What does this fold into?
Amino acid sequence: MENFYCEKCKRITETAVKKVQEAYPVKNENVVIESDVRYCAVCGEALWDNALDEANLIRAYDKFKEQKGLLSSDQIKQTRKKYALSQSMFAKLLGVGEKTITRYENGAIQDKAQDNLIRLIDNAKIFEKLFRLNQKEIGPKEIRKLENILLQIKKTV
Ligand SMILES: [Zn+2]
It folds into this structure.
């Protein structure tokens, strides 16, 4: 059990975490999730817990993506890791802003067009095509690295 300061009891008390059905607003829609809420074990008052709230928010975003048929943060990461790419290199190949992939992998919601693009690049042939198209923007060292990755992929396919 963790101890928190309770505003109502005006002292540090023992607390407990309970599961509560809660609606979170995501992109003008309400997403109902089972969220974790901390309560004062003495008076029953709900207490603010930043870490729990952040985890609840990520859960709401993931549920929203699932409902909309969008890739989850983990699925986006898996596609990037499949090609052993850094977030910024992955962004270059997709033609999106450098921080965009970082945000998606941290839970932000991608729009449908970008979701489609990430699904397409999961196909090695499309990956190669985008790599050839965007070579100008990639340094020689990274080009060699990507050529190697492509060779590896072709061997395993
Ligand atoms: Zn209390």
Notes: The chain has two domains: 3-68, 73-156. The beta strands are 3-6, 11-26, 29-40, 46-47.
